[in-house]
Amino acid sequence: MKILVINGPNINMLGTREPEIYGSTTLEDINCELVEYASTLGDVELEFFQSNHEGEIVDKIQSAASFNGLIINPAAYTHTSIAIADAIKSINIKAVEVHLSNPQTREDYRKISYTASACVGVVAGFSKESYKLALLGLVNKINE
Ligand code: DQA
Prior knowledge:
Layout: E1 2-7, H1 19-22, H2 27-38, E2 45-50, H3 54-62, E3 69-73, H4 82-90, E4 94-99, E5 121-124, H5 129-143
Parallel strand pairs: 1-2, 1-3, 3-4, 4-5
Helix pairs in contact: 2-5, 3-4
């Protein structure tokens, strides 16, 4: 099974970006841990993509029809991007939204997610473990 993992704007800054909120782990470390975790779930192959640009994320999603599933941390675009939500809905694969922090406990403007409605589930608030929980849930959904 092939899973695409997309991270949105400023996720490339993990490690130095607001460590009190996002922790001190880098995106590369998170991706490495996720590859290791994926190997415990059977035949699960991961591809990673990070962009700070909404249109690039839309393009990547549109080209993802050959994947079995999508894990996406849209970052700030979660709260603004109808375009990314529409792109996820335009491809026929299951998606899970993931967040390191729990946006529901933060500023009001983070409490709305445009992208969640395009996803089969949302995992938020478990720091880097959110990605592993999202992968487990997504693989189970795909295997259902
Ligand atoms: C985030 C939460 C968003 O509100 C924020 O804009 C991010 C990161 C998270 O993973 O906790 O950039 O998606």
